[in-house]
Design goal:
It is a single chain. This protein has about 110 residues and is α+β, with helices and mostly antiparallel strands. It has one domain. Strands 1-2-3 form a three-stranded antiparallel beta sheet, covered by helices on one side. Strand 2 and strand 3 form a beta hairpin. Helix 3 packs antiparallel against helix 4. The longest helix is centred in the C-terminal third of the chain and has 14 residues. The radius of gyration is 14 Å and the shape is globular. About 25% of the residues are buried.
């Protein structure tokens, strides 16, 4: 059973799909999100003029929507809380990659 879960987890990381959660958050921030062209990032964030603002999200780790989907709300909320504590310094700098990661993925 564990090997199946491990394979499934790895496939989920390889085939990252932008969630509805992230799309809604992007719309509220007035930015556009697309799958990243960078191998080591999940999404690229663009302004309405098509200028790249940031590339965010490590594909080797789950984000809030992914935790919700695969682990449930309780674990997702705990992971979100820990993420916000761990990234307190960079997630509050408006316009930074940390800000967009926080706003769009957590």
């Amino acid at each position: 059973m564990e090997w199946t879960a491990t394979i499934f987890f790895k496939l989920c990381l390889i085939m990252y799909k932008i969630s509805l959660y992230t799309k809604k958050k992007a719309k509220a921030l007035n930015v556009i999100v697309l799958p990243s062209e960078k191998k080591n990032k999940k999404i690229d964030v663009y302004d309405v003029y098509g200028n790249l603002l940031a590339s965010v999200g490590d594909p080797n780790y789950l984000d809030y929507p992914s935790f919700l989907r695969y682990c449930g709300k309780k674990i997702a909320d705990e992971k979100r809380k820990l993420y916000k504590i761990r990234h307190q310094k960079d997630r509050t700098v408006k316009g930074s990659p940390g800000y967009y990661a926080d706003q769009l993925l957590w």
